[in-house]
Design brief:
The chain has 404 residues and is mainly α. It has helices at 3-19, 25-31, 38-62, 66-85, 90-121, 126-150, 158-174, 191-194, 206-219, 224-234, 244-247, 249-264, 267-274, 276-296, 303-331, 334-366, 375-396; strands at residues 368-369, 372-373.
Amino acid sequence: MSLKLRLTITQFLEFFIWGSWLISFGNYMFSMGMGDKIGTLFATAGIASFIMPAIMGIVADRWLNSERLFGILHILGAGCLFLASTATDFNQLYLYMFLNALVFMPTIGLSYSVCYSVMAKNRMDTVKDFPPIRVWGTVGFIVAMWIVNLAGWGKSPNQLLLACGAALLLGVYSFTLPSSPPTKAQKGSSLVSTLGLDALVLLKERKMAVFFLFAILLGVCLQITNSYGSSFLDSFKTDYPDSFAVKNNNIFMSVSQISEALFILAIPFFLHRFGIKTVMLMSFAAWILRFGLFGIGNPGSGMIWLTLSMIIYGMAFDFFNISGSLFIEKETPAKFRASAQGMLMMVTNGLGAVIGNYGAESVINHYTIDGVINWPTAWFVFATYALVIGVLFAIFFKYKHVKE
């Protein structure tokens, strides 16, 4: 088996695990009578993203091969997912899914680290060779969504068992990967340096401080439709029982992930032509449309608006996440880049996502009367939020684009 294929399998399974439940889990929680706690449960991933990647990074840097740590975490995750599939009340479910988040979220970064390490040892060009490998992670995510949908597991704990099986398979498979030994942190490194927080010094510069502040504010938007999108579509089952978007909401939602993969290809052109500020404003505009189109759409005459919302998701997600990462790469000194990238992950997928999930839960519960959610109003609240922070970003983020 070729090295590229082995790494491709790693990326495919990594995101297959996540795709097995992330989009459909809200529906499962509603079916279990836990719909008012969706934001609380999904916030576990944000909490884990804020604390665990740095801790596991220290372990991989000092004591344990990355591929072995990667495998151990996935085997532990398989156990957590299995226990979560047996949970009958929210406290049990929350505990097991929180434990799963603690061991799963660090594996995303570790999956990249393992690939980079193996590719460097084999003198492969990471810039050229890694993207075609990474895109199979998105494929894995989509395939898992389709399996859950076609098997009718959207409201079943079987989606967790599917993720459990994939996690166990990847955990065992990881031990067959080429060795990625610890790099050994330098002696005398400060705790701040060891935790990857050197980049805090960048906040002394106004431009970077404003950028990271808005990274938190935009991070609020990232997981709202993942948490609630499938449940929203399922709410139309009475009025549009035969609609494709209702009967196959996971497959319909997967258009967002397909769009995400395609918009990545457009980023170099847009960054070169318009610059980082304009591209990020496009992301804000796309989030406004993502939420607003959900607000006016339905699986009948408004199907076109729901479809456009799925397509626009790629721009909303990629034009901030990927472009923001490239901005960090270009604007920070070399010695702070790795730390700054880690900090970007912490504030967007960590702090921002936690605020977003709890905030979305509060908004949706506020607009729930006698068990019926006023979805359009909730989506318009989220769209208004994206509009306000987009306008503030345009005013306060100062950056002049110079074409290269």
